[in-house]
C-alpha cells in the first residue's frame, strides 16, 4: 500500500537529488572508501578458495563447480564444509580466464565495483521499505523518502564492517548474494503494478533470483522472509513457501550428507557444558555483532581461539551487554508493534526484519556454524542497521547538531574504511593488525608466524608459534610448523617432542606424522621413522611427499628395491614429482643399473621436459654408457635453463675429458671453479687435465 510523503524526510541534512544523481553519489562514496584495496594480494582464505582451488583452472571440467564446495572439495567428502556457492566460484573462474591467471587486481576491482552497485541499489530498497510502493502516471515507482533512503545508502556504502567482504576476495560470496537478494526483492515488488494487481510471472522471476542468491551464499534464501509484506498474503505465502521448500530440498539433496562437523576451536560456545551457558554465550556473540555495527573500530580477520572468552557464570560482568542488547531490541520491537504512527511502525518493523533475518543462518539456532564472529555475515544485516540509523537521525530536530553528527559519522566511516582496506592489502599487515584487537587469539599469532616463516624470517616466526602454542596448548598446526622450523635448525629433540605431542592430540594428522618421520630419520631412529611414515600414509592414502621421504629412509638403509618402489608410488600419485624421479635415476646410476636409469630418466623428461635436475642426472648416466653426444645435449640444455650450476659445468667438463675434447673440458672446468671454487673433485680433475695438456704441448713437434 502506498504511503504519503514521509514526514521526517525533510529533516535529513542532504539535498534532494534526482534518482540517477543519488545512485552515482552513493557509488562514488563506496569507491572512495574501498578503492585503495584494488591492488592488494591474495590474503587469508583467498589461498584456499582461489589460489589452491583447481576448479578455477581452465583445465578443470566446468561441471566440477556444481559438485564441489566453495573450497574445491567434493560435497560428498566428510571434510567438506558444505559451502555450496557455484555461481561465486564461476565468477572467480571468469576472473582467472580474463586475467590469464591468478592476478589479484581483477578480482579486487570486481569486488569494489559490485559493492558500489549494491550500495546504489540500496536507495531503491530503502525507498520501498520506508515509503512503500507508489507509482506516478507513467508507472514508475515513486520515492517518498528520497533524503532518508539516500542517507541510509551512503551509510551502507561507507560502513567499515564491509571491509572483509569487499577487500577480501572470498567476500565475493556476500556481495553476489546481496546483489541477487536486492534484485529478487525489487523484482518481487514489480509483481504489484500501479493498479495493485498481482503478477505471478514476476514472483517466479523473483524466486529464480532468490535461488541465484542462494547459489552465491546460503543466506540468500532469507530474502523470501523479507518479501512478505504486501497484499495478496495467502497467494504470496503459498508461492513463497513452495519456492522456499523446493530450494531447501534441492540444497539438502546436493549436500548429500549431513551438515559439516565443526570443532570446539571453531565455535566454543556450541560446546558449552549446559544449554543455559550456550544460550548466554550465543547472545553475547549477538551483542558483539551489534557492537561492530555501532562502533566498527575493532575489526579482526578471525575471532576464534580465545579471542572471545566464554561466559561461564551468571555473575560475569559481560552479562550487562546481553541485557542492554535485549532492552534495546524490545524497545524497538514495542515501538514497531504498538506505535500510533503508521510510518514509524513500518520503518521500524522492516528495518528490524532486514537487520535480523539475513543474520539468522549465522546465529547457531538452526545449526552449528564454524565461527565465533564473522564480519562478512553482517554485510546484508548492516543494511537494516543503516536504515534504522537514518530513521533515528531523521528525528533529531536540532538541524545544526544533526549536520555535525552526519558529517562526523561519515568522515569516521570513510577514514576507517581506508585504514582497514589498506590492512587487507597484504597478509603481513592484516595479521599484524589483529594482534592489538585479539591478543589472546592463538590463530592470530599462528598466522603472523606463518607469514614470517614464508618470507624466510624463521627466527621471528618461532616466537609467534611458541605464543600460539602457549595460548592454545592443543594447537596441533602451530606445533607442526614450529617442529618443522626446529628441524631445519637441527634442534631435533625438541622438534620430535612437539610433533609427537601433535599426533597424540590429533592421531589422524598426516602431515605431522610425516614430519615426525623426517625428524626420527635424522635422529637415526629408523624403525620409528618408518612407522611414522606409514601412519601418515594410512591417514592420507594419496600422499606423494610421504612416499618420497619413505624412499629416502629406505635408501639410507640400503633397501634399494623398497626405495625405488616408494619413489615410484610418489610419481604415480604425483607425476610431476621431480625429486622422486631424480632420486630413482641417481639410485639406479649408483647401483650400476645404467640401462634402467636411462629408461627412468627418459620417462621423467617426457613428463617434465624442462627439469634441469633430471637432465643433469640422465646426462651423467648417458656419459657412463659412452653416449657422449646425447649426454652433451642434455648437459647443454640443462645449462641453458640454469647457467650458474657449477656441478653441471664440472660434469660436462668430465664428459669432454673422457671424450677427448680437452679444450672444451678446460673451459667448463674453469667455469665450474669460478662458480664454486670448493667444488669437490673439480680442482683435482682440472689439474689432471692441465698436466695432460702440458704433455701434449711438449710432445708436439
UniProtKB/TrEMBL annotation:
Pathway per the UniProt entry:
Protein modification; protein glycosylation
Which GO BP terms sit in this record?
Answer: endoplasmic reticulum unfolded protein response
* Domain spans labelled DUF1736: 258-330
* Enzyme Commission no: 2.4.1.109
Domain of life where this protein originates: Eukaryota
- The TPR repeats lie at 442-475, 476-509, 510-543, 544-577, 646-679
InterPro entries given for it?
O-mannosyl-transferase_TMTC, TMTC_DUF1736, TPR-like_helical_dom_sf, TPR_rpt
Q: Where this protein primarily resides, as one coarse class?
A: endoplasmic reticulum
Q: Which family does it belong to?
A: Belongs to the TMTC family.
This chain belongs to the protein called: dolichyl-phosphate-mannose--protein mannosyltransferase
* Organism whose genome encodes this protein: Amphiprion percula (Orange clownfish)
Amino acid at each position: 500500500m502506498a504511503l504519503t510523503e514521509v514526514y521526517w524526510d525533510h529533516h535529513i541534512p542532504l539535498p534532494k537529488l534526482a534518482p540517477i544523481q543519488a545512485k552515482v553519489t552513493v557509488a562514488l562514496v563506496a569507491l572512495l572508501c574501498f578503492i585503495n584495496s584494488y591492488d592488494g594480494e591474495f590474503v587469508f582464505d583467498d589461498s584456499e578458495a582461489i589460489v589452491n582451488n583447481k576448479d578455477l583452472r581452465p583445465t578443470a571440467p566446468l561441471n566440477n563447480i556444481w559438485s564441489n564446495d566453495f573450497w574445491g572439495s567434493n560435497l560428498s567428502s566428510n571434510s567438506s564444509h558444505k559451502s555450496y556457492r557455484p555461481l561465486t566460484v564461476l565468477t572467480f573462474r571468469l576472473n582467472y580466464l580474463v586475467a590469464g591467471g591468478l592476478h589479484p587486481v581483477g578480482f579486487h576491482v570486481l569486488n569494489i565495483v559490485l559493492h558500489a552497485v549494491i550500495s546504489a541499489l540500496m536507495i531503491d530498497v530503502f525507498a520501498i521499505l520506508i515509503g512503500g510502493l507508489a507509482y506516478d502516471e507513467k508507472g514508475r515507482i515513486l520515492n517518498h523518502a528520497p533524503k532518508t533512503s539516500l542517507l541510509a545508502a551512503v551509510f551502507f556504502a561507507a560502513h567499515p564492517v564491509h571491509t572483509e567482504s569487499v577487500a577480501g576476495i572470498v567476500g565475493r560470496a556476500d556481495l553476489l548474494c546481496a546483489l541477487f537478494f536486492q534484485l529478487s526483492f525489487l523484482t518481487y515488488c514489480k509483481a504489484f503494478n500501479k493498479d495493485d494487481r498481482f503478477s505471478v510471472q514476476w514472483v517466479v522471476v523473483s524466486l529464480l533470483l532468490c535461488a541465484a542468491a542462494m547459489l552465491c551464499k546460503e543466506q540468500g534464501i532469507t530474502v523470501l522472509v523479507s518479501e512478505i509484506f504486501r497484499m495478496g498474503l495467502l497467494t504470496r505465502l503459498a508461492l513463497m513457501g513452495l519456492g522456499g521448500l523446493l530450494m531447501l530440498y534441492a540444497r539438502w539433496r546436493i549436500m548429500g550428507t549431513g551438515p559439516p562437523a565443526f570443532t570446539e576451536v571453531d565455535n566454543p560456545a556450541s560446546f558449552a557444558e549446559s544449554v543455559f551457558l550456550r544460550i548466554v554465550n550465543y547472545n553475547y556473540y549477538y551483542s558483539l555483532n551489534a557492537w561492530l555495527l555501532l562502533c566498527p573500530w575493532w575489526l579482526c580477520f578471525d575471532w576464534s581461539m580465545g579471542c572471545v572468552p566464554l561466559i561461564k557464570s551468571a555473575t560475569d560482568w559481560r552479562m550487562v551487554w546481553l541485557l542492554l542488547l535485549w532492552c534495546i531490541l524490545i524497545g524497538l520491537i514495542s515501538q514497531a508493534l504498538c506505535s500510533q504512527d503508521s510510518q514509524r511502525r513500518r520503518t521500524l518493523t522492516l528495518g528490524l526484519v532486514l537487520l535480523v533475518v539475513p543474520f539468522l543462518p549465522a546465529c547457531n539456532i538452526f545449526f552449528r556454524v564454524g565461527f565465533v564472529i564473522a564480519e562478512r555475515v553482517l554485510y546484508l544485516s548492516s543494511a537494516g542497521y543503516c536504515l534504522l540509523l537514518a530513521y533515528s537521525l531523521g528525528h533529531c530536530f536540532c538541524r545544526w547538531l544533526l549536520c555535525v553528527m552526519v558529517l562526523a559519522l561519515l568522515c569516521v566511516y570513510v577514514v576507517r574504511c581506508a585504514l582497514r582496506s589498506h590492512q587487507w592489502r597484504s597478509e603481513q599487515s592484516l595479521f599484524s593488525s589483529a594482534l592489538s584487537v585479539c591478543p589472546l587469539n592463538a590463530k592470530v599469532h599462528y598466522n603472523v608466524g606463518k607469514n614470517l616463516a614464508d618470507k624466510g624470517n624463521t627466527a621471528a616466526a618461532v616466537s609467534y608459534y611458541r605464543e600460539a602454542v602457549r595460548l592454545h596448548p592443543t594447537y596441533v598446526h602451530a606445533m607442526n610448523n614450529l617442529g618443522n622450523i626446529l628441524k631445519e635448525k637441527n634442534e631435533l629433540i625438541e622438534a620430535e617432542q612437539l610433533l609427537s605431542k601433535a599426533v597424540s592430540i590429533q592421531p589422524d594428522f598426516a602431515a605431522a606424522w610425516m614430519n615426525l618421520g623426517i625428524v626420527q630419520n635424522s635422529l637415526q631412529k629408523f624403525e620409528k621413522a618408518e612407522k611414522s611414515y606409514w601412519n601418515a600414509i594410512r591417514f592420507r592414502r594419496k600422499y606423494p611427499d610421504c612416499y618420497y621421504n619413505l624412499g629416502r629412509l629406505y635408501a639410507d638403509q640400503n633397501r634399494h628395491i623398497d626405495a625405488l618402489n616408494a619413489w615410484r608410488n610418489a610419481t604415480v600419485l604425483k607425476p610431476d614429482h621431480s625429486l622422486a624421479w631424480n632420486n630413482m635415476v641417481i639410485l639406479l646410476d649408483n647401483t650400476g643399473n645404467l640401462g634402467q636409469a636411462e629408461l627412468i630418466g627418459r620417462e621423467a623428461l617426457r613428463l617434465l621436459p624442462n627439469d634441469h635436475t633430471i637432465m643433469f642426472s640422465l646426462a651423467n648416466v648417458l656419459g657412463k654408457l659412452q653416449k657422449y653426444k646425447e649426454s652433451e645435449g642434455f648437459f647443454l640444455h640443462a645449462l641453458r635453463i640454469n647457467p650458474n650450476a657449477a656441478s653441471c659445468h664440472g660434469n660436462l667438463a668430465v664428459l669432454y675429458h673422457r671424450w677427448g675434447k680437452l679444450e672444451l673440458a678446460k673451459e667448463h672446468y674453469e667455469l665450474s671453479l669460478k662458480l664454486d671454487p670448493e667444488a669437490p673433485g673439480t680442482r683435482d680433475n682440472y689439474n689432471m687435465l692441465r698436466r695432460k695438456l702440458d704433455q701434449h704441448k711438449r710432445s708436439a713437434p
